[in-house]
């Protein structure tokens, strides 16, 4: 049976609006009123704090956040604090994981990482994992953060995924947002971007288009 996947690219959307959209899609997919979905988008400058809840990893006070125009959301995904902003491709896969077929939630995270690792390989870049952390790394710098939620289905076995990956595309994103936090609570390593590791320019929309075939291949669409 062929799985159907709807793909939507949004050039920029407020974080709260996208979060609400995810919740609506999760409900519709669970009720089988909507195909599985991949949202690809950019957010305005935003810090999101996951379920680990370490407010001390946010290094900016309220006045500094206002001056820089950065919003803060405490959200329902796993993980610690991260940054979203222009120049970063955010991907929210909203897909059904069948609870009756050897469900492997850890494997889902590894598959998300594999999408980005495979994408980087086409440009001769070796993306890797660090056993103690999620995400994709180039050397000792993180290029893609991952944090997900598994929403238990109400109408069938299994889970619907939400949240997802944040892939740094444009150079300079480190200075724009990551300097105001301890990203994912990790102090010993830095962050990088697709432009930094390849030495060539990219647009976020171009990267979104190019990454779709890798996502489809890894997840069997």
Automatic annotation (TrEMBL):
The record marks 142 as: Lowers pKa of active site Cys. It comes from Paenibacillus haidiansis. Catalyzes the transfer of endogenously produced octanoic acid from octanoyl-acyl-carrier-protein onto the lipoyl domains of lipoate-dependent enzymes. Lipoyl-ACP can also act as a substrate although octanoyl-ACP is likely to be the physiological substrate. This is Octanoyltransferase. It is found in: Cytoplasm. It is an enzyme of class 2 (transferase). The gene is lipB. PANTHER family: LIPOYLTRANSFERASE 2, MITOCHONDRIAL-RELATED (PTHR10993:SF7), OCTANOYLTRANSFERASE (PTHR10993). Its main location: cytoplasm. Residues 32-221 form the BPL/LPL catalytic domain. It holds the Pfam family LplA-B_cat. PROSITE patterns: BPL_LPL_CATALYTIC, LIPB.
């Amino acid at each position: 049976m062929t799985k159907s996947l709807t793909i939507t690219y949004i050039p920029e959307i407020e974080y709260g609006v996208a979060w609400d959209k995810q919740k609506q899609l999760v409900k519709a997919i669970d009720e089988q009123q909507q195909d599985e979905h991949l949202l690809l988008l950019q957010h305005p400058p935003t810090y999101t704090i996951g379920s680990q809840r370490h407010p001390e990893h946010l290094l900016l006070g309220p006045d500094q956040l206002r001056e820089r125009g950065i919003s803060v959301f405490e959200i329902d995904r796993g993980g610690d604090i991260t940054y979203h902003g222009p120049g970063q491709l955010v991907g929210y896969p909203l897909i059904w994981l069948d609870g009756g077929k050897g469900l492997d939630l850890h494997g889902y995270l590894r598959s998300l990482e594999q999408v980005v690792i495979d994408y980087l390989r086409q440009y001769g870049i070796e993306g890797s994992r660090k056993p103690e952390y999620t995400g994709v790394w180039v050397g000792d710098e993180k290029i893609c953060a991952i944090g997900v939620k598994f929403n238990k289905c109400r109408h069938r076995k299994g889970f619907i995924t939400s949240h997802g990956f944040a892939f740094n595309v444009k150079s300079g994103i480190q200075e724009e947002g990551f300097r105001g936090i301890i990203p994912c609570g990790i102090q010993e390593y830095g962050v990088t971007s697709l432009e930094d590791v390849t030495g060539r320019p990219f647009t976020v929309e171009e990267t979104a288009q190019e990454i779709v075939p890798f996502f489809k291949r890894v997840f069997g669409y």
